[in-house]
Amino acid sequence: MKDQHSSSALGSRADVAAGGGRNTRNTGPGRLLIAVYAVFAISASARAGYQILTKFSEAPLAYLLSAFAALVYVVATVSLAKAGSTWFKVSVAAVLVELVGVLVVGALSVFDPVAFPHETVWSLFGRGYGFIPLLLPVLGLVWLYRRRPSQGQTAP
């Protein structure tokens, strides 16, 4: 049930209704972080969708990895914007998967370029995107660490 009287002290009504108190992950620099994730979610989804629909047979691994990256960016975007400790945990998981993906795919694309005849979002550590895919999960993890829920907070 919504506690409308305490919403001014704790944050928005949606945050209170979610049971997570005030969501500080989507304020200040967090808004910019969420916006960058949203841009990557949209661009990676569009790129992967186009590549899979038009030239999948040319580089199926690369295009499927781009689609996976797009899914990770969507999950990260949504979870960073949502309140509550459960969404916090989803955010941490998504950003960690993203970091591992960038590092693994980046390394594989350097050491085995034959396996990646076409670039993915994470190829060469995100070189095609100005290395933002390499920097973004690091910034995301720092932000999440600084905005982790208090010990007394419960999941919605």
Folded structure, characterized:
This protein is mainly α. The chain contains six helices and no strands. The radius of gyration is 18 Å and the shape is elongated.
Give the SSE layout:
Layout: H1 7-10, H2 13-17, H3 29-55, H4 60-81, H5 85-111, H6 132-146
- Output the number of helix runs: 6
> Approximately what portion of the residues adopt beta-strand conformation?
under 5%
Rounded Rg: 18 Å
Low-confidence stretches: 1-20
Mean pLDDT: 83
How many strands in all?
0
Helix content: 55-70%
SSE topology string: HHHHHH
* Ends apart, CA distance between termini: 12 Å
Q: What overall geometry do the principal axes of the alpha carbons give?
A: elongated
Instruction: Summarize the main sheet.
Output: none
Tell me the structural class. Answer: mainly alpha
List keywords for this structure.
156 residues, mainly alpha, 64% helix, elongated, disordered N terminus
Short description:
The protein has 156 residues and is mainly α.
